Amino acid sequence: MDRFWTLMTQLHVLAGPLVMLMYPLYASVRAMESTSKVDDEQWLAYWILYSFLTLAEMVLEPILTWIPIWYDIKLAMVAWLVLPQFRGAAFVYEKFVREQLRKYGGKVTMSNEEGKDCSIYGTWF
Fold first, then answer.
1. Which of 54, 76, 89, 90 would give a disulfide with 46, using CB separation of 3.0 to 4.6 Å?
2. Are 24 and 82 in contact (CB under 8 A)?
3. Which family does it belong to (predicted)?
4. Element housing 108 (H / E)
5. How far is residue 51 from each of residues 6, 47, 113, 123, measured CA to CA in Å?
6. How far apart are CA 54 and CA 124, in angstroms?
7. φ and ψ at residue 84, rounded to 5 degrees
């Protein structure tokens, strides 16, 4: 029985990097090589949300250390974002992030080759 729990612990440790990084990396590369725009949106949305989750986790670390199952919750959330059956990343981006960008979006300033500012107002979408 001890070997079983040791195996389960090791699988748990490997599941995080596989689900959160390795599979999304592989799927992102495949999406870049495909002609479909749908998979590009899914994986770009995933990386945006994963980055936000990582930043939030860094800020909230003192609180999250008191939640013993935080890693399991995070793994389940990320699995929902990643799995193609759910397309969770695209769903969250479409329903929440895009709406906030439309609501509070505004000015984006970039420089062109001559060094002049090019302002874009409300043309994110």
1. 89
2. yes
3. Belongs to the DP1 family.
4. strand 107-111
5. 31, 6, 29, 24
6. 24
7. -65, -25
Describe the chain by its helix, strand, coil percentages, rounded to 5: 70, 10, 20
DSSP class of residue 117 equals E
The pLDDT of residue 58 is 95
Strand partners, 121: 107
Q: Which two three-digit tokens encode residue 93?
A: 């981006």
- Which distant-in-sequence residues (6+ apart) come within 8 Å of 116 by Cβ? none
Residues contacting residue 122 through CB under 8 Å, at least 6 positions apart? 105, 106
Residue that has been written with the tokens 């500012």 in this structure: 117
Backbone angles phi, psi at 66, to 5 degrees: -85, -5
Give per-residue pLDDT as tens, 44-83: 999 999 999 999 999 999 999 999 889 889 999 999 999 9
Beta strands in 22-106 (DSSP E): none
- Is the pLDDT confidence value at 118 over 80? no
> How far from the centroid of its chain's Cα atoms is residue 112's Cα?
30
Q: Report pLDDT digits (tens) over 96-110.
A: 888 888 877 754 444
Decide which of 7 and 84 is more confident.
84
